[in-house]
Design a protein that fits this description.
The strands form two sheets. A six-stranded mixed β-sheet has the order 5-6-4-3-2-11. The chain has a five-stranded mixed β-sheet with strand order 1-7-8-9-10, covered by helices on one side. The C terminus is likely disordered. It contains six helices and eleven strands. 26% of the residues lie in helices and 19% in strands. The protein has one domain: Purple Acid Phosphatase, chain A, domain 2 (4-Layer Sandwich), CATH 3.60.21.10. The chain is α/β, with parallel strands linked by helices.
Length: 217
């Protein structure tokens, strides 16, 4: 996407989440989260989402929505059921179901195969925005990705990298980077919480980029 999406928190409550892993029955997912089975996991995630997110809110979902959903029916149900005004989606590494929806939507709208188009809207609120996206909230630049990034666009300005994938197990979490996955709080993370987290972070250069005060390149 060449044109970054821009939002104002005064207009909508904004949330971030990743790695919901609906219907993922593996112990390495369920056990650390304290769920006995996928039914308990699914019900708690939906309940927590509905208690947190409002009808007029915006959610950025950074991947791994649903597991083992080849025909997309489970994912369609989730997309249509999870409360929000707009649901922006970044690809993760568990894309079954959601990928089926995406391919069918391109076929239905454009009669094309084996292409990627972003943004692509499905239904009245779900929007595919690709593998990576740059957005602004209240003027703050943010890079969204499923995987954590070491050096990203605008890092030294600073822009912030919000990601998932690591289930709060990333060994090095220095700099302006935050895991917003389900394992952090077992609910979506608010824009206010992101700001509170980032204000405590310190810029760390991992390459030739410096802060603006040090002549950013």
């Amino acid at each position: 996407m060449n044109n970054p999406l821009k939002f104002r928190s005064s207009e909508h409550k904004i949330w971030f989440i990743s790695d919901l892993h609906f219907f993922h029955d593996k112990p390495f997912i369920l056990n650390p989260r304290g769920y006995a089975n996928i039914e308990e996991s699914n019900l708690h995630i939906i309940s927590s989402w509905d208690e947190t997110v409002g009808e007029n809110d915006i959610v950025f979902n950074l991947g791994d929505l649903c597991f083992g959903d080849g025909n997309g029916e489970r994912s369609k149900f989730l997309i249509e059921s999870l409360k929000c005004k707009a649901h922006y989606f970044i690809w993760g590494n568990h894309n079954s179901g959601v990928k089926t929806i995406y391919r069918d939507e391109i076929k239905n709208k454009y009669n094309l195969d084996n292409v990627e188009i972003y943004p692509l809207k499905y239904g009245d609120r779900f929007v595919f925005i690709g593998h990576y996206a740059e957005i602004f909230i209240d003027g703050q630049p943010i890079v969204l990705s499923h995987y954590p990034i070491a050096s990203w666009n605008g890092l030294s300005h600073p822009s912030w990298n919000l990601h998932g994938h690591c289930h709060m197990n990333l060994k090095q979490i220095d700099g302006y980077r935050m895991d917003v996955g389900w394992d952090r709080s077992k609910r979506p993370i608010s824009w206010e919480e992101v700001k509170e987290f980032m204000v405590k972070r310190v810029f760390e250069s991992v390459d030739h980029h410096k802060t603006k005060e040090d002549s950013c390149i």
